């Protein structure tokens, strides 16, 4: 595989002037790196850092952005002096259709061929517990955004062995309680009034979608909801007719779809729009990608979706979005790129604080890095990353912690204009827009 040629770091004239310009580079993490490097250029031997991403096949829209996010982070970190003067050199392997076997092979190639000190991924579809074994055997650091209970369960089972595996967001389980709490707040503020107590839950067969759906189903009664439909669809899916026929026959107050492929979800809205039911529609993650709005068009307006990790619509997040799109194009999916971008900064700061990163089989040094990662509380593009030391996963706000400075926000967004992205409507204090009643609701 060809090595990427990164732009040469700019010559830094002096520490004081340099620190004035780091605000846009990784926020507080960038400033910390600059301070640790004392304004020095990154010019030592390169540190290889890897990523296993779905660069081709059905999830390539995300995979390309994961790649872009890591490249951008590495370039910025190198401009800040790298890790104690050593520049980062990103390496990539394609996980294609993903799955445990393919994901493991890609990570193993990163270690065997390139000797990476860390693997900084977005997500890969699979159990979430396969890659950590490869990481543990090599003694390096792994940061991912799979958002799966498989990760947390594995790390809790043997924290000593899996010291180096970190999930940069909360597990998908929190989507369920978080969604029910969100609906409760909409009702308390009189922004939404349920026409009945029925909720339809539609999922795909994967562990991720199933865990979220089951989380909603198991706790729905606590919030006064009756699950009137719980249906698993085969994906990818373009024909939603049979499912829509059931929904129209017995209209629920809320339709909750935990499947997350953007093209599939867009087709649901295209086919729902001509004959809608009086139902609030919530979808999982897919609408955050530009492809959803491009396919669904005006039919996308009114849809609510959520993500446990994504660029916030505040000063830090909007500045990142601007820089990201300036580099990769206006249609680039910065929310996907933000995941490995934040993950790379988290690891780089921790490695600098620990005295450097460790190559494969240098578990002693990487344990120091991991300890720093568990102790850091820092504000990135996606909010506050604070790891739970019991399972090496970022805590979620407001469901897991009630302090926004100590957890990554569970974001709820609504598409209010198909020409733009989703508007962040919850949680406080990050919301930038109010909820707008969808046009199809009575």
UniProtKB/TrEMBL annotation:
Q: Which UniProt keywords apply?
A: Amino-acid transport, Signal, Transport
The yes or no answer to whether the keyword Transcription is present is: no
Write down the superkingdom of origin: Bacteria
Keyword Aminoacyl-tRNA synthetase appears in the UniProt entry? no
Domain named Leucine-binding protein is located at: 47-393
Supply the source organism for this entry. Answer: Pseudogemmobacter humi
* Protein's UniProt name: Leucine-binding protein domain-containing protein
Q: Which family does it belong to?
A: Belongs to the leucine-binding protein family.
* Matching SUPFAM superfamilies: Periplasmic binding protein-like I
- Give GO terms for biological process: amino acid transport
């Amino acid at each position: 595989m060809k090595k990427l040629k990164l732009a040469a770091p700019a010559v830094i004239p002096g520490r004081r002037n340099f620190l004035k310009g780091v605000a846009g580079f990784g926020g507080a993490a960038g400033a910390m790196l600059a301070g640790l490097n004392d304004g020095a250029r990154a010019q030592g031997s390169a540190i290889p850092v890897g990523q296993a991403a779905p660069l081709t096949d059905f999830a390539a829209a995300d995979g390309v952005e994961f790649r872009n996010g890591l490249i951008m982070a590495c370039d910025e970190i190198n401009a800040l002096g790298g890790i104690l003067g050593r520049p980062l050199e990103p390496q990539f392997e394609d996980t294609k259709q993903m799955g445990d076997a393919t994901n493991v092979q890609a990570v193993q190639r990163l270690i065997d061929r390139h000797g990476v000190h860390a693997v900084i991924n977005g997500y890969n579809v699979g159990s979430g517990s396969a890659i950590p074994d490869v990481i543990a055997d090599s003694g390096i650091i792994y940061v991912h955004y799979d958002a799966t209970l498989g990760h947390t369960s594995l790390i809790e089972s043997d924290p000593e062995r899996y010291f180096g595996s970190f999930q940069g967001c909360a597990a998908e389980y929190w989507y369920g309680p978080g969604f029910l709490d969100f609906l409760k707040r909409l009702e308390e503020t009189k922004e939404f009034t349920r026409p009945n107590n029925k909720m339809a839950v539609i999922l795909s067969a994967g562990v991720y979608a199933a865990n979220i759906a089951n989380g909603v189903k198991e706790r729905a009664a606590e919030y006064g909801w009756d699950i009137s439909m719980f249906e698993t669809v085969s994906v990818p899916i373009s024909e939603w007719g049979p499912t829509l026929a059931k929904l129209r026959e017995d209209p629920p107050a809320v339709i909750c779809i935990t499947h997350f492929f953007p093209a599939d979800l867009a087709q649901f809205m295209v086919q729902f729009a001509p004959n809608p039911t009086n139902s609030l529609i919530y979808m999982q993650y897919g609408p955050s990608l530009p492809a959803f709005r491009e396919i669904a068009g005006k039919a996308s307006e009114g849809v609510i979706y959520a993500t446990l990790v994504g660029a916030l619509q505040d000063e830090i997040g909007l500045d990142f979005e601007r820089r990201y799109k300036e580099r990769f194009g206006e249609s680039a999916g910065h929310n996907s790129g933000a995941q490995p971008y934040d993950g790379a900064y988290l690891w780089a700061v921790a490695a600098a604080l620990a005295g450097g990163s460790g190559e494969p089989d240098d578990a002693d040094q990487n344990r120091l890095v991991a300890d720093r990662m568990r102790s850091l509380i820092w504000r990135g593009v996606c909010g506050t990353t604070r790891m739970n030391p019991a399972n090496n996963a970022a805590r979620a706000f407001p469901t897991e912690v009630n302090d926004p400075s100590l957890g990554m926000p569970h974001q709820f967004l609504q598409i209010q204009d198909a020409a733009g992205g989703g508007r962040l409507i919850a949680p406080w204090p990050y919301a930038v827009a109010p909820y707008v009643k969808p046009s199809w609701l009575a």
